[in-house]
């Protein structure tokens, strides 16, 4: 295996980034880092404290004071700890999903998160997923993937995930929510969601997560052998 190799997976919500990145990391024996979970954890803390999400200084101070840990346990579940509390479920609540892009657009918050993400990846083989991993966090990543899918396919996946948790959400409202988050993430001035010029763009609208993992693993193993 090539020493200290990083793989960046970016793309819009529901493209399958976490599913693919986690399985790829397991197959390759790499560390998986979910950068979105870090922005979600800060957003959860800000919402709990009733902070004004447009107040960059408060949010920056909050990010600075917060301890965020990501672990992947043997059954491949990624757990997220905020100041020692397990917030794995809480950060996926719709309230957090609706507000996270507001927090993630603040340059002061991003600066702190990016620094921590680079530290987590230092001298390790990692698969890191997010929005700006290939463009900002790890611009020297050995392989950059931009994973996407049609808004309808992504909303349908979200709907199935929610159904499995006992929530029935109409497809239309999920398409709208995803489109709004895409718009906010793509139009912001700092680290917008765009493919790195050297990214491999994969449209997974008609692919299973397993097929996507297989395609990427084949390329990585082909390269490093
Ligand atoms: O899982 P999902 O695609 O819904 O989103 P996520 O990866 O958990 O990220 C949540 C939000 O955090 C995104 O909509 C972005 O606003 C922000 N984010 C970011 O700005 N930069 C990253 N590297 C990762 C996430
Ligand atoms: O991280 P991101 O928001 O990009 O997506 P995710 O949280 O991995 O959710 C994607 C959902 O769609 C999961 O339930 C996957 O099993 C499913 N899926 C996928 O990830 N990739 C496909 N090509 C097809 C379905």
TrEMBL record:
Cellular compartments per GO CC: cytosol
Source taxonomy: Bacteria, Bacillati, Bacillota, Clostridia, Eubacteriales
Major location (coarse): cytoplasm
Recorded GO MF terms: ATP binding; dCMP kinase activity
Pfam families referenced in this protein's UniProt entry, alphabetically: Cytidylate_kin
Keywords: ATP-binding, Cytoplasm, Kinase, Nucleotide-binding, Transferase
PANTHER family named in the record: CYTIDYLATE KINASE, CYTIDYLATE KINASE/PANTOATE-BETA-ALANINE LIGASE
Keyword Metal-binding: no
Listed SUPFAM superfamilies: P-loop containing nucleoside triphosphate hydrolases
Family to which this protein belongs: Belongs to the cytidylate kinase family. Type 1 subfamily.
Name of encoding gene: cmk
GO-annotated biological processes: nucleobase-containing small molecule interconversion; pyrimidine nucleotide metabolic process
EC supergroup of this enzyme: transferase
Protein name: Cytidylate kinase
CDD domains: CMPK
Localization in the cell: Cytoplasm
Residue ranges of the TM segments: none
Catalysed reaction, written as an equation: CMP + ATP = CDP + ADP; dCMP + ATP = dCDP + ADP
Binding residues for ATP: 11-19
Keyword Cell membrane: no
EC identifiers of the protein: 2.7.4.25
AAA+ ATPase domain span: 3-124
């Amino acid at each position: 295996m090539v020493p200290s190799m990083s793989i960046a997976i970016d793309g819009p919500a529901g493209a399958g980034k976490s599913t693919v990145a986690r399985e790829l990391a397991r197959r390759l024996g790499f560390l998986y880092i979910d950068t979105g979970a870090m922005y979600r954890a800060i957003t959860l803390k800000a919402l709990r404290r009733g902070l004004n999400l447009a107040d960059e200084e408060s949010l920056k101070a909050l990010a600075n004071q917060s301890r965020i840990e990501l672990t992947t346990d043997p059954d491949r579940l990624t757990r997220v700890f905020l100041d020692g509390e397990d917030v794995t479920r809480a950060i996926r609540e719709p309230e957090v999903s609706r507000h996270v892009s507001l927090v993630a657009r603040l340059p002061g918050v991003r600066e702190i998160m990016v620094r921590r993400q680079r530290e987590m990846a230092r001298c390790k083989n990692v698969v890191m997923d997010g929005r700006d991993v290939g463009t900002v966090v790890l611009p020297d990543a050995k392989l950059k993937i931009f994973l996407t899918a049609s808004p309808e396919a992504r909303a349908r996946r979200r709907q199935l995930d929610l159904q499995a948790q006992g929530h029935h959400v109409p497809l239309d409202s999920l398409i709208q929510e995803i489109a709004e988050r895409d718009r906010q993430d793509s139009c912001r001035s700092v680290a917008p969601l765009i493919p790195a010029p050297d990214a491999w763009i994969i449209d997974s609208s008609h692919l299973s997560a397993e097929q996507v993992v297989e395609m990427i693993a084949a390329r990585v193993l082909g390269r490093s052998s």
